[in-house]
Write a sequence for this structure.
């Protein structure tokens, strides 16, 4: 009964905006990873490039460049995992001072909602950030697995295990990148959820903008057009 009374402090607009945020987060993730046939997303296009990377690695000697690139990918995941952890800590500290936050909100946006309302709003942000943190950590570990598999690829391209091991490394790299992308999307929607502090309408608008931005980057961006370009075939002629 107490919980029913507390949640009654949220309007139907709040419920609709939060539903839009969560549904949009789930839908855009599914759409990016399961694009319509003939219209691949940037993430899906990059999977083919990752497979090509590992094939070229087999023939490259030495493989210093590949090792550096794998290390850079791990550093990126570690950076975002650390940033998510710091943001989570800040959110938890903010929950402990919701009365002060309520006072600031009353002065700035004339909202006299009780502390419980602000706690729930911050909790939504923290849940999205926690999901992002877990995705980044798992991505970091998978890129570590990928580095080990890359090191296990024989130096001789003619070796029976050279290309099979490279293919394994490519698939692990793709899985790691997929987890990293999911973490990034959670971060985007966590930022959109911050708009709920200003009200239900700002939250709904932020959710729609986030969905539109992600859709454009994956399906209508200039980077996607570049990735889809087919390089001209080499004629094999030698210029004298």
């Amino acid at each position: 009964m107490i919980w029913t009374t507390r949640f009654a402090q949220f309007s139907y607009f709040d419920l609709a905006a939060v539903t839009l945020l969560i549904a949009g987060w789930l839908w855009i993730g599914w759409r990016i990873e399961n694009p319509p046939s003939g219209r691949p997303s940037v993430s899906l296009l990059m999977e083919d490039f990752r497979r090509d990377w590992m094939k070229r690695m087999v023939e490259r000697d030495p493989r210093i460049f590949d090792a550096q690139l794998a290390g850079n990918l791990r550093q990126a995941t570690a950076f975002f995992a650390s940033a998510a952890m710091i943001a989570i800590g800040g959110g938890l500290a903010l929950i402990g001072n919701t009365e002060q936050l309520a006072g600031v909100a009353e002065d700035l946006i004339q909202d006299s909602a009780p502390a419980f309302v602000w706690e729930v709003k911050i909790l939504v942000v923290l849940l999205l950030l926690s999901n992002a943190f877990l995705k980044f950590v798992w991505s970091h570990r998978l890129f570590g697995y990928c580095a080990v598999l890359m090191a296990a690829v024989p130096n001789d391209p003619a070796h029976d295990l050279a290309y099979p091991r490279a293919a394994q490394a490519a698939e692990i790299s793709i899985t790691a990148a997929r987890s990293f992308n999911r973490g990034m999307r959670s971060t985007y929607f966590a930022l959109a959820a911050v708009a709920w502090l200003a009200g239900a309408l700002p939250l709904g608008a932020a959710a729609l903008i986030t969905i539109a931005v992600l859709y454009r980057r994956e399906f209508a961006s200039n980077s996607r057009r570049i990735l889809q370009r087919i390089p001209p075939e080499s004629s094999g002629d030698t210029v004298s």
Summary: Residues 17 and 204 are 5 Å apart (CA to CA).
